[in-house]
Amino acid sequence: MTAETQAFDVVVIGGGPGGYPCAIRAAQLGLKVACVDSRATWGGTCLNVGCIPSKAMLHSSHEYHKAKHELANQGIMVGKVSLDLSKMLARKDKVVQELTGGIAFLFKKNGVTGFQGTGRIVKAGEVLVTKADGSSQTLTAKAVVIATGSVPANIPNVTVDEKNVLSSTGALTLPAVPKKLAVIGGGYIGLEMGSLWARLGSEVTVIESADRLVPQMDGEISAKLKQQLEKQGLTFKLTTKVTAAAIGKNNVTLTLEPSAGGKAETLVADKVLVAVGRRPFTSGLGLEELGITLTKGGQIVTDAHYQTNVAGIYAVGDVIAGPMLAHKAEEEGIALAEQLVGQHSHVNYDVIPAVVFTYPEVASVGKTEEELKAAGIGYRAGKFLFSANARAKTTDSTDGFVKILADATTDQILGVHIMGAEAGTLIAEAALAMEFKAAAEDLARTCHAHPTTSEAVKEAAWATFSKAIHA
Fold first, then answer.
1. Could you list the residue range(s) of the whole structural domain that residue 429 is in?
2. How does DSSP classify residue 360?
3. Which residue, 81, 117, 336, 392, has most beta carbons within 10 Å?
4. Is residue 158 part of a domain?
């Protein structure tokens, strides 16, 4: 049964970090907006099964580890520490529920009409929404925005069943701590999930086909992060690929080979997490029938204004080119909404920060040393250790450093890389400085409150063009 057609200015398909901000901003600008999502709750992968639940669990696991191993150093004696995993998971679920409910409130506040169902573009300007009960609704719009995000990528001969072989979604709902956990992939998700379960008691082995962790990050940061995680008990097998997974009664046997080829070996684990990245989710949208151009990797091709080759159909977030990051998707969604009403918004893709929420955290923005060398760009590097930062001393968080890369001629900041407590927060200062094309000296001569970890950023800036004061 099809309900009466409803007309809108904009229909956004996908209620995640790219879609819901796009819908809200468009409504704030006076457009009549609908947002469609197949989940019963808003927020997409990020809020429901990705960024938010993982960070809730990472925080809880860190607090557990502190209580068990670190608080006594501060004279806080807590006695025997035990883990109630079910309560920890319940807290995670509560955080998710509150935040997804918050989006529903924002939709109501801003006048966005939400539709729970699967959206399919019938033609330019027309979307068919099929609900869980089988009923359907036709929506028309001047602009249709695809913001359906991404799903976990798979590897050959390793089948995810969410019981023994897990995606990141399954890794956030394990009812018990596995004795041995194998993680396939040494990127953001693999390291976060691996460190989470290691803190809770798992023996974690991370298998990565490249020769270093988080290959897209600065090489020095990658090496230091590996050292820190090894201290926390994680084991790494680099330049190694998984060629098969055999599920037994109570475990999984992985077959491993050197990435360049060679003798095979096996690794037995209670659970296996596949964390080899993500791929665009565009199935069921009707893109092939519409003739929308895709890349070989399945991403939607758009112009500088996020419009596809079919007029009136746009795309943002993980389904188009660029890093698959929630905040990148949000910036694109907001920029597109503003462009639809004639504004000249844009996204500066050179200044998109990235964060790995391990402990210590790792964050970066801009170019790495490897990228600058490959491009033949002359630069100076300044570094400051958190072990020399007063605030880090007071909080027992002295691991890591700040590194700033600046143009050798102009002193303009080209990249900032941080490993340390609150790195994900500290990187925002660097991103803002780079957005305004600041020089390292500009950052160094900006007064920072004392005692704060942000002073390490200031000191690294001093070290870039002159000398740090406290080193």
1. 360-465
2. S
3. 336
4. no
Note if the bond before 360 is cis, omega within 30 degrees: yes
Total domains present in the chain:
3
- The C-alpha angle 212, 217, 219, rounded to 5 degrees, equals 55
First to last CA, the chain: 72
Do 380 and 458 fall within a single domain? yes
At which of 349, 375, 391 does a domain end?
A: 349
Closest CA to 393 of 22, 46, 47, 74: 74
> 107: closest CA among 39, 40, 34?
34
pLDDT higher than threshold 90 for residue 122? yes
CATH of the domain at 140: 3.50.50.60
The Cα 368–Cα 402 span in angstroms is 13
What distance in Å separates the CA atoms of residue 467 and residue 84, rounded to the nearest whole number?
Answer: 49
Residue 4 has what pLDDT? Answer: 83
Number of H helices, E strands in the chain: 14, 22
The answer to whether residues 326 and 307 touch, using CB atoms and an 8 Å cutoff, is no
List the structure tokens of 277: 């990245």
Global pTM reads: 0.96
Which tens digit of pLDDT belongs to each residue from 358-398? 999 999 999 999 999 999 999 999 999 999 999 999 999 99
Residue tagged active-site, from 69, 305, 346, 450? 450
Q: Where are the alpha helices (DSSP H) in 42-157?
A: 44-49, 51-69, 85-110
Name the DSSP class of 439. Answer: B
Question: Considering only CA atoms, which of 274, 335, 9, 288 is closest in space to residue 147?
Answer: 335
Distance (Å, rounded) from C-alpha 99 to C-alpha 13?
Answer: 20
Label the pairing between strands 165-166 and 271-274: parallel
CB-count burial class (<10 Å; 0-12, 13-18, 19+) for 287: buried
Q: Is 159 among the domain residues? A: no
Q: Is 450 a catalytic residue?
A: yes
The CA distance from 9 to 340, in Å, is: 10
pLDDT over 80 at 2, yes or no: no
Beta-bridged to residue 37, according to DSSP, are 116
Residue 157 lies in a domain: no
User: Using CA atoms, how far apart are residues 339 and 356, in angstroms rounded to an integer?
Assistant: 32
CA atoms within 13 A on the CB side of 448: 22
299: left (phi over 0), alpha (psi -120 to 50) or beta: beta
Residue at which a domain ends, from 260, 276, 292: 276
3-class DSSP state of 241: strand
* Backbone phi, psi, residue 53, to 5°: -60, -35
